[in-house]
Amino acid sequence: PFVSLVNFGGTYLLMYLLSRDDYTYPCHPKNKKFHLNWWLYSTLMGAASGLTGSLLVWAMSRTVDWKEFGKEIGNGAFQSWLLFMITQYGSKEGDTDDGKYNPTRNADGVAYTPARQPFAGYPPHTTSPYKLPYVKDKSLYVVQGNQGMFSHTRFNPTATLYAYDIAHDFGDEVLAARAGTVVDFYDWIDDDINPNSSQKNSAFTQSETDMSAGWRGTNKPAWNFIIIRHDSQNAEHDKGPNGTAVTTYAIYGHGKQGSIRAAFLAHSDSKAPGDILGTTVQQGQPIMQGGDTGNSIMNHLHMQVMGGPATAPAGSITRLDQLTDYTLPFVFREQKGALQSLTWYKSDNERVN
Predict the structure, then answer these.
(1) DSSP character at residue 291
(2) Own/partner pairs for 277-280, CB < 8 Å, 24+ apart?
(3) Is 4 exposed, middle or buried (0-12, 13-18, 19+ CB in 10 A)?
(4) Are strands 173-175 and 286-289 parallel, antiparallel or unpaired?
(5) pTM for the whole thing?
(6) Structure confidence at residue 280 (pLDDT)
(7) Residue 56 confidence (pLDDT)
């Protein structure tokens, strides 16, 4: 018990010393420090715990037992190795310094130039312009929150750190979390695939038939998504690094094939596919259905907020490459602070027709 007690404290000391920059799932190809931390540092910490615990017991009992000495050092090393992943998840999952964390290194470990500045932190939920993106009184499960082990870390080559993965089932309605204007969308990718080049080309060709030739230039998305610009600025919630004001854009992704076009066609102000861009949406309006398109392992909604231009450039639409290369911390009205991984949340978002 003494060895375990000391080991527990030592393991949490190790977690304190590990940077949140290095948090991601085990054996991620770019997480070069993982095995060093797991196999070397944690076992050394455990061995030291076994040594310290044994000496402590000897001092208290005034008994020296060399036979047990090596056994307890090995036991401590094994305990620490075994508990490393559990403790890392418990201490690093969702660790964003309360919304201030902004990684200073990219996915390859190279420092950003100019240096990234921290965020001001999560704003108060009581004044949030966002409501959960599903119908009022329904509860859904957050599979992965901000700084989530699987993909919401600095190791993702695309910006996702301040994103939420919400377990919308296949075909579940996705409601607009906040009012705004549709500046980009795509829903021609077949369901349940992460498309290869041929499948992306096929979807792109169909989109040009339904919209107009050249409507996306050469941009061929690999998932179904919709981007909504928030036209009514909120000084308390629309903030970039160091609290600077920014125009925000919400991205809703992994949707069901054809569901964005269907949602706008079914709306009281019916819109043909070619008329969806530039459409104003209300909070609570259906904008998509849940799906599993793109780089995804289950049906869910991926939602994140990014900064961008105050208006779309003349003659074009706003795409991801025109938005900030980082996500922004944001909160929903229903919950204080960020949504946590593996937690259920009940919506207060009134559906509108």
Answers:
(1) B
(2) 277/182, 277/183, 277/184, 277/185, 277/317, 278/181, 278/182, 278/183, 279/181, 279/182, 280/179, 280/180, 280/181, 280/182, 280/231
(3) middle
(4) antiparallel
(5) 0.91
(6) 94
(7) 83
Write out the H or E segment, with its range, that includes residue 186.
strand 180-186
Q: How far apart are CA 281 and CA 287, in angstroms?
A: 8
Quote the CA–CA distance of 261 and 287 in Å, as a whole number.
9
The token duo for 196 is: 């290869």
The conformational region for residue 4 under phi > 0 = left, psi -120 to 50 = alpha, else beta, is alpha
Torsion of CA 139, 145, 148, 150, to 10 degrees: 50
Tokens of 315: 């003659």
Interstrand relation of 139-144 and 343-346 (parallel, antiparallel or unpaired): antiparallel
* CA-wise closest residue to 251 among 345, 204, 205, 186: 186
Phi, psi of 189 (to 5 degrees): -75, 135
- What contacts 246, CB < 8 A, 6 or more positions away? 238, 239, 240, 307, 308, 324, 328
Supply 34's token pair.
């993982």
* HSE value, Cβ hemisphere, 13 Å, CA-based, for 74: 5
Tokens of 94: 């969702």
Q: To which residue do tokens 């209300």 refer? A: 282
pLDDT of 303 reads 98
Q: What 3-state DSSP class applies to 248?
A: strand
Structure tokens at 338: 């960020």
Per run of 10 residues, the mean pLDDT along the chain (length 353 residues) is 75 82 89 85 85 84 83 86 87 95 93 95 97 98 97 94 98 98 96 98 97 91 96 94 96 98 93 93 98 97 96 70 92 97 98 93
